[in-house]
Amino acid sequence: MSLSGKTLFITGASRGIGREIALRAAADGANIVIAAKSAEPHPKLEGTIHSVAEEVEAAGGRALPLQLDVRDESAVREAMARAAGHFGGVDALVNNAGAIKLVGVERLEPKRFDLMYQINTRAVMVCSQAALPYLKKSAGGHILNLSPPLNLDPKWFAQHGPYTVTKYGMSMLTLGMSEEFKKYGISVNSLWPRTMIATAAIEFELGSRDAFKRARTPVIMADAAHAILSSEGRRITGRLMVDEDILRELGQTEFEHYRFDPEGGSLVPDLFLD
């Protein structure tokens, strides 16, 4: 199914995976709300809501760039209303905005935990709540959260428990909302990459691009998100999916073209996957 004419509200879409999901949907002729904080260029992170809006329209979609802090529930409600007013509704919400700090309890500043919790877990609730009145009116609304399967192996809590808690909270909300919103015909899922994804945020966290030789590009996440968001009738809902797995399930067998470096070594698995 095509996303032509559908309206997607994507948080954190000024770069990385969110940007790639926006461009993939734009190629179908979708309407894209680029909701992110970056209205001005960042010295270390490429992309703004305005640069992505230009790319979306060049790819064949319609764009509405909105500067938004997902921690502010009033601003989220206002942005959702503006999006619905501009495009005539909202058909899908992609909760892509994220914050990361891979340290344990001993070293993490409480304010950094607050930031991760607010942008990861809390924003899923806030944005989904704000989108719900519009998704109810859509012919098959979708919520897609970028969060992992729930792997309770202690190793995923030992080194960065606070971050793990905030990402798993997103996934637990996926499971809850899929059931809660069943009566409205809304599909709710989570999506996570099989491997490290080469994004500016990861480069910023690691301090270099060296690891990108063993990473995939965000295109694989965009293709997987497109497959989920274009599904109909709650055919796919309540699932915590991995990008490669859902694409294989739908018949894709070739994945080499997603490599950041075709000559790179073995791919690095992403967090939370054994």
What would you say this structure looks like, in words?
The chain is an alpha/beta fold. The protein has one domain (7-195, 218-244): 3-Layer(aba) Sandwich (Rossmann fold), CATH 3.40.50.720. Helices cover 41% and strands 12% of the residues. The chain is built from nine helices and seven strands. The protein has helices spanning 16-26, 49-59, 73-87, 110-135, 155-158, 161-180, 200-206, 219-229, 243-249; strands at 7-11, 31-36, 62-67, 92-95, 142-145, 187-192, 240-242. It has a seven-stranded parallel beta sheet with strand order 3-2-1-4-5-6-7, sandwiched between helices. Helix 1 links the parallel strand 1 (7-11) and strand 2. Helix 1 (16-26) crosses helix 8. The chain is globular and about 45 Å long. The mean pLDDT is 96. Keywords: NADP, Oxidoreductase, Peroxisome. InterPro entries: HSDL2, NAD(P)-bd_dom_sf, Sc_DH/Rdtase_CS, SDR_fam. Pfam families: adh_short (PF00106). It comes from Metapseudomonas furukawaii (Pseudomonas furukawaii). GO terms for molecular function: oxidoreductase activity.
What features would you highlight for this structure?
274 residues, 41% helix, 7 strands, seven-stranded parallel β-sheet, 9 helices, Rossmann fold, alpha/beta
Mean pLDDT: 96
- Quickly give the CATH architecture: 3-Layer(aba) Sandwich
The structural domain count equals 1
- Figure out the total of helices: 9
Give start-end ranges of low-pLDDT stretches: none
Largest sheet: 7 strands, parallel
Number of strands: 7
**Rg (C-alpha, Å):** 17 Å
Shape type: globular
Q: How many angstroms separate the termini?
A: 32 Å
CATH superfamily: NAD(P)-binding Rossmann-like Domain
Helical fraction equals 40-55%
